[in-house]
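Team,

Forwarding the record for the chain on the shared tracking sheet. I've put the sequence and predicted structure together so nobody has to dig through attachments.
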Amino acid sequence: MYSLIVFYGCYFIRANFFIKALCSGNTDKKEVAISFDDGPAENYTTEVLQVLKEHNIKAAFFCIGNRISDNKDLLKQVQEEGHIIGNHSFTHGTWFDLFSHKRMSEELAMTDEAIKSVTGCKPHLFRPPYGVTNPNLKKAIVNGNYIPVGWSVRSYDTIIKDEKKLLRRVTRNIKRGDIFLFHDTRKTTLNILPTFIQHLQQKGYDIVRLDKLLHINAYE
């Protein structure tokens, strides 16, 4: 039983088992936030930005550090269009959660530097790869003075290929303060994004930037 509890605590960030992560906003307003992981990427960050611009929506982009050098203009565009940028590790490796806290800290610092070299800002927000947490990552987060950020609605857009199924998943049981997790590397997400935004607005929800929803500073 204990092993199951630990497993749950590691793989479900909302459990706040090892470290408390911000996974939703505490608000009495009909406000939600949209976030994207794994960019910046040639496919499909530019198109996602265009959709957000057309609907006047500001989002959060949690970026992988080793993708920045080849996509500096994209990252700069994210910043210039009013979105916020967070740290999502440097490699997002499959075995990231098995790294020592020292190596995790190095990855986070490398991503900070990559982001700062383009934007001039050091991110304060960190989202763990796959949402996995453990004692080593807690040390890296605390030592780096990061604010860990999760989500309340996980789209599973890296798995769900059917657009109708994906849209149904993210539009059911919407609540005030929800943080939606998407990936700006998925065409299915790009394809449903306009309809998803319109659905939220038709339901009376304001889509606000993540830092506003959580009342935190996005940068140090």
